[in-house]
Design a protein that fits this description.
The complex is a heterodimer of chains A (928) and B (164).
Chain A (H helix, E strand, L loop, with lengths): L19 H7 L2 H26 L5 H20 L3 H18 L7 H19 L10 H13 L6 H4 L35 H8 L3 E8 L12 H11 E6 L8 H4 L3 E8 L6 H5 L6 E4 L46 H25 L9 H22 L1 E3 L1 H4 L1 H13 L3 E6 L4 E3 H5 L2 H15 L3 H6 L6 E10 L2 E8 L6 H10 L5 H6 L2 H5 L9 H5 L9 H10 L3 E7 L3 E9 L4 E9 L2 E6 L3 E7 L4 H4 E4 L2 E6 L2 E7 H4 L5 E3 L6 E3 L1 H6 L8 H6 L3 H5 L11 E8 L2 E7 L1 E9 L1 E2 L10 E6 L5 E5 L1 H7 L4 H27 L1 E5 L5 E5 L3 E8 L4 E3 L2 E6 L2 E6 L1 H4 L11 E7 L13 E4 L1 E6 L15 E7 L2 E6 L1 H10 L1
Parallel strand pairs in A: 6-8, 13-25, 17-21, 27-36, 31-33
Antiparallel strand pairs in A: 1-3, 1-4, 2-3, 5-7, 8-9, 9-11, 10-11, 12-13, 12-22, 14-20, 15-16, 16-17, 18-19, 20-21, 23-24, 24-25, 26-27, 26-34, 28-32, 29-30, 30-31, 32-33, 35-36
Helix pairs in contact in A: 2-3, 2-5, 2-15, 3-4, 4-5, 4-6, 5-6, 12-13, 15-17, 17-23
Chain B lengths: L1 E8 L2 E6 L3 E5 L14 E7 L2 E7 H4 L12 E5 L2 H8 L15 E5 L1 E8 L4 E2 L4 E2 L2 E2 L3 E6 L4 E5 L1 H4 L10
Parallel strand pairs in B: 2-13, 5-7
Antiparallel strand pairs in B: 1-2, 1-8, 3-6, 4-5, 6-7, 9-12, 10-11, 12-13
Classes of the chains: A alpha+beta (928), B mainly beta (164).
């Protein structure tokens, strides 16, 4: 649908008695398919217009537009004798006319009927031949009920049913047309949309249809010739159109008894016959509003009921929008595809030419400039042709206005939909495959995500649910987001359901993050309906949506917050035909990897290999910025004999690495093979690490999984034209297609998903390992935080700093020197009715003793280990002063402090501080 | 009467109905396709057209065809081209190819020979190590036997899509 029809029928036709030739042409296939295409365009505009009208937009222009569109359909249908199509569009037209003239307001009921009518019309257009079997009685009844129920009533001429066609005659539309001939006569029709006619009207000319009878010009008549008549006519006006060839008056006119001329003149209706010297009855004025245009349909000769020299219907001729002249045209898609392929080949030839001419550039003057110009023109040409395949995404998005409206009705919800970025252009192929997935997503939004109005209000949300579709460009891709402000997806519910259905294990569930859980809805066999709402599902799962999107090279992601809403983000390629890719090399072969699959390139030097690559459950793994990802050698996946090219002699030999990494060798690991240098290299005089020992890793991604692909070489990026895989190699899972590079060689395009499958990469194992490590890291972090968390800083002897962890301490008590009692060598105080042994740090640790003159002490009473639950307190550490209790950051030193009771030393607040371990001290005291 | 393009694998002469041959060239710089069936030698670029090249020796069980200065690539017509030709051809049932353009890698090429129908004999059950299924017939020349290939069999193409 490259062209937009302007709503003006381009069909000018004429029916004459006994002239069957024209009929045959009329029913030409081309005409019918043109009618179908135009009607579809009309229906596509009618629907959003009706919705806009319903939503209360300024109606004048819109009603006219709808009216015009329906009218065109009716005209064509009548002309082509599709009666049901004609009758239904006629009835709709009547209702629209009332609507426009203010006789009716657009009630929801009317909107429903009109929309239903549009659907019916669509059904009929889709199957024109069977259109007369489509039942339309229901719609007709409703429409006529609405029309007749309107207070103003319908103008007689308009509400009159379509006149029945006389046998053998072409069924004709009955409504707004401008009659150009009196009743009882063979009639013709003029196309009032003709530029000439429109110009004439614009210049204020009156338009007349002039009937010319042959008798007028016969020798025994007035003695005039047709040529003379026309000459006279041209002095007072203009011949706008005629039913004969007015330039060839001798032959054309002789064929028929009666002919008509469409005459434009400044003369008034009563003067025209006089000026033309014909009977007044032969001249009929045609009233056309300035700017108005409409196809005049042929009328049945036997039906004169509504004929009038100034038919009231002529007012109904719809206004043509100002300046709306078609500047586009319909082109067959296959033609565009051919052009596209040719352009692809041209690009290839250009590339080859440039490469071959490179050497000659200096020798032939002017060659460089010429090559550049060929280069540019080819690029522009290709881009231009690509753009012809691009269509605004709005052509797909706009239908969701209707979908959402109908869904809202059905479900008893109130939903507002906003569509943003309709102008973003997408390749036709992509656009076509976008429709189904989007419909599914939107249905899900309306059906499951958005709550009923009452529920929304109860939650403090707007009554009206919102769905927003937003299309935009980003990073050379098209992104489409579909958001709603509904109930969101509960990761817990979804993941539990997934466990229930056996899609994941409970253990896996426990390890999953919220985001992963939410994205479980894409898992095959997962039913959204059962988890998100009580409303039943529609059979097609989100996995199908995902598959469809991935089929066109896109990705889909889901983000959701409970009770806030859900956003589905689609990422789509601009076009399928040309793919920016990276060319990589393995041994003497090259492979293209599409850029969309490439995350980054990593170069691992030979001496870093050991620390960056490890092996987890038989899987080589690359550590990249704390992340782990499976690593695989492309040559291994593709079973390519990895040749080692000796840098000195240039001779090739099978690389040992291949053998080491080979599946047959049980201990084969990537790490090992670099430890073992190739034998002949070792024997060489200047033994060194050559390029072959480094790893070029292409980090690729597919559906959220990343992995590293080791290649031997990286070449340039190239924009490649994708060819499908030939039939004989279709089963090679590692490739999506092939392409011809600039040097004329064919290379295969890697399918990242296929490579991962063939390599049997264990993403799960690696993920698990990574989770384990992260957990470990968190544990250590937590441990460090514990030490950091809170300490009590105190003095034993003044000037010496000690610290104890707060959570190891039960109480701090202040005691007087007098309270200390001595039993043997051990000091005690009475504490809660018991004797509490005191710990002087200098007794156990190599530190200064507390001065004797200290009057007041503090007791730090440690918590009791759990096994001695009954005991209240076991001992008290004597401090002279509590300095502070706070959260301190410290680096604990343990070297040289092997004394029991001491955790270590650290610098806290610029003082060297010993960290006490109270338990061990207590034990020592009790053992004494 | 029909014309047969002959080609050589080792010492054995093979023939292909000339109507099936698109062209014969020296495009032997073939891009291998990892994981493809063993007798698929790879792909070549024929003026923008990607052609799947069969290793004829490997396909007929005679071992991998080596590359030498005499090596040639016999490019066969694809189905869409053949469909037209088949309308007028005499031996319709033999004019079957694959949907994609294909080529046969051979050791060398010989003359195009014109033979009478009666010279054309039914193939033996096998010819040396070659399974007779791959042959549609044999032609005895003065010194040599030409084994005429059944291209549909060689390309693994089902016979039922023949217009004949």
């Amino acid at each position: 649908m490259l062209s937009r029809s302007t709503g003006i029928s381009g069909v000018f036709w004429l029916r004459r008695k006994g002239l069957d030739l024209a009929m045959n042409e009329m029913f030409d296939d081309g005409l019918v398919s043109e009618f179908i295409a135009e009607s579809r365009d009309h229906l596509d505009t009618i629907e959003p217009d009706l919705l806009a009208l319903e939503s209360g937009e300024e109606s004048g222009d819109i009603v006219n537009r709808i009216f015009r569109a329906i009218h065109s359909i009716k005209g064509g249908a009548g002309f082509l004798s599709y009666e049901h199509l004609r009758d239904l569009s006629h009835a709709m037209e009547n209702a629209l006319m009332l609507l426009r003239d203010g006789g009716l307001a657009l009630s929801p009921a009317l909107a429903d009927v009109l929309l239903a009518g549009v659907d019916k019309l669509r059904v009929m257009i889709d199957d024109l031949e069977g259109s007369d079997t489509v039942p339309i009685a229901g719609e007709l009844e409703k429409l006529s009920a609405i029309v007749s129920g309107s207070e103003l009533g319908a103008p007689a001429a308009v509400s009159a049913p379509a006149p029945a066609a006389a046998p053998g005659a072409v069924a004709a539309p009955a409504a707004p047309t401008s009659k150009v001939a009196p009743p009882g006569e063979p009639q013709g029709a003029f196309d009032l949309s003709h530029d000439k006619v429109r110009n004439a009207v614009r210049h204020g000319l009156n338009i007349f249809a002039v009937k010319l009878e042959r008798s007028l010009f016969e020798p025994e008549g007035a003695g005039r010739s047709l040529a003379g008549f026309l000459e006279n006519l041209r002095t007072v006006g203009e011949c706008l159109d005629s039913t004969f060839d007015s330039n060839d008056t001798n032959t054309a006119y002789a064929a028929s008894e009666v002919e008509y001329i469409l005459f434009g003149s400044v003369l008034e209706a009563d003067l025209a016959p006089v000026a033309l010297e014909v009977e007044a009855s032969c001249v009929h004025a045609i009233e056309i509003k300035p700017g108005a245009a409409s196809a005049i349909a042929a009328h049945n000769a036997s039906d004169g009921a509504t004929t009038d020299s100034k038919p009231p219907e002529s007012r109904t001729a719809a206004k043509a929008p100002k300046g709306e002249v078609s500047d586009s045209l319909r082109v067959r898609v296959s033609l565009l595809t051919d052009l596209m392929n040719l352009a692809g080949e041209l690009v290839l030839a250009r590339n080859q030419l440039l490469r071959m001419m490179e050497d000659q550039a200096d020798t032939v003057p002017g060659l460089v400039a010429l090559m550049q110009s060929i280069d540019h023109v080819t690029t522009d040409l290709q881009e231009g042709i690509m753009r012809t395949r691009m269509q605004p995404i709005g052509t797909v998005l706009s239908k969701y206005q209707r979908v959402v409206r109908d869904l809202a009705r059905q479900l008893g919800k109130e939903i507002e939909i906003t569509i943003d970025g309709s102008e973003v252009e997408v390749d036709k192929t992509i656009l076509e495959s976008l429709s189904d997935p989007l419909t599914h997503i939107i249905r899900n939004c309306a059906d499951h995500a958005l709550e009923p109005p009452a529920e929304r209000e109860a939650m403090g949300k707007r009554r009206e649910g919102r769905i927003a579709i937003h299309a935009f460009h980003e990073d050379g891709q098209i992104k489409v987001s579909i958001s709603d402000d509904g109930r969101g997806i509960d990761p817990e519910k979804v993941s539990r359901k997934a466990v229930e259905k056996g899609l994941i294990s409970e253990a896996e569930r426990a390890r999953m993050g919220d985001r992963d859980k939410v994205n479980l809805v894409f898992a095959p066999g997962f039913s959204m309906a059962a988890t998100i709402s009580a409303v039943s599902g529609r059979g097609v799962g989100m996995d199908v949506v995902r598959t469809n999107i991935e089929k066109i090279g896109g990705t889909i992601e889901l983000e959701s917050a409970v009770n806030e809403g859900t956003t589905v983000l689609l990422q789509l390629p601009l076009t399928l035909a040309i793919v920016p890719s990276m060319i990589t090399g393995v041994a003497d072969q090259r492979f293209a990897i599409p850029q969309v699959n490439i995350e980054e390139f990593v170069w691992i030097r030979a001496n870093e290999v050991a620390e960056r690559i490890e092996r987890i459950q038989g899987q080589d793994v690359l550590r990249l910025r704390g992340m782990l990802m499976p690593l695989v050698r492309l040559s291994t996946v593709l079973d390519i004999d990895d040749t080692f090219i000796d840098p000195r002699s240039g001779s090739e030999s099978a690389s040992r690495r291949k053998q080491v990494a080979d599946r047959r060798s049980p201990d084969g690991a990537l790490i090992a093979d670099d430890v073992v240098e190739p034998a002949h290299d070792r024997a060489g005089a200047d033994r060194r690490v050559n390029w072959h020992s480094d790893y070029n890793v292409v980090v690729v991604k597919n559906a959220g999984n990343k992995f590293g692909l080791i290649v031997d070489r990286l070449f340039d990026g190239e924009e490649i034209v994708v060819n499908p895989l030939p039939g004989h190699i279709k089963d090679c899972r590692c490739f999506t297609g092939n392409t011809i590079l600039g040097d004329g060689k064919v290379v295969m395009i890697l399918d990242v998903v296929g490579v991962a499958e063939v390599a049997k990469l264990h993403f799960a194992n690696v993920e698990e390992e990574e989770r384990k490590r992260q957990a470990e890291e968190r544990r250590r972090e937590a441990e460090r935080a514990k030490i950091r968390k809170s300490i009590i800083l105190f003095h034993s002897a003044p000037g010496e700093y000690f610290a104890v962890q707060q959570d190891a301490v039960m109480r701090l008590e202040r005691i007087q020197r007098d309270a200390i009692e001595l039993v043997g060598n051990q000091e005690f105080v009475q504490y809660r009715g018991k004797g509490l042994p005191l710990i002087r740090l200098d007794s156990y640790l190599p530190v200064q003793p507390i001065p004797d003159d200290t009057k007041e002490f503090f007791l730090i009473i440690p918590k009791v280990a759990q096994k001695q639950e009954n005991a209240t307190a076991l001992a008290g550490i004597v401090a002279t002063r509590i300095v502070d209790a706070f959260d301190a950051e410290m680096e604990l030193q343990k070297e040289g402090l092997n004394t029991p009771g001491l955790l270590g030393s650290a610098v806290i607040r610029d003082h060297l501080t010993l960290l006490i371990e109270p338990d061990q001290l207590t034990c020592q005291v009790l053992n004494n | 009467m029909r014309q047969i393009a002959t080609m050589r694998l080792g010492e054995q002469l093979f023939g292909v109905d000339i109507l099936l041959v698109r062209e014969i060239n020296r495009l032997v710089d073939i891009t291998p396709v990892p994981h493809a069936t063993h007798y698929i030698r790879g792909l070549v670029n024929l003026r923008g057209l990607v052609v799947t090249v069969f290793d004829l020796g490997e396909r007929l069980g005679m071992g991998r065809t080596g590359i030498s200065p005499a090596s040639h690539n016999v490019i066969l017509k694809a189905e869409p081209e053949l469909a037209r030709i088949r309308l007028q051809a005499e031996f319709k049932e033999e004019l079957i190819s694959s949907d994609d353009p294909t080529g046969l890698l051979v050791d060398g090429i010989g003359d195009v020979i014109t033979i009478e129908n009666e010279q054309f004999e039914l193939p033996p059950a096998n010819l040396g190590t070659i399974d007779g299924h791959f042959l549609s017939g044999v032609v005895q020349l003065d010194k040599q036997l030409v084994a005429v290939l059944d291209i549909a069999m060689v390309l693994g193409q089902a016979r039922n899509n023949a217009a004949a």
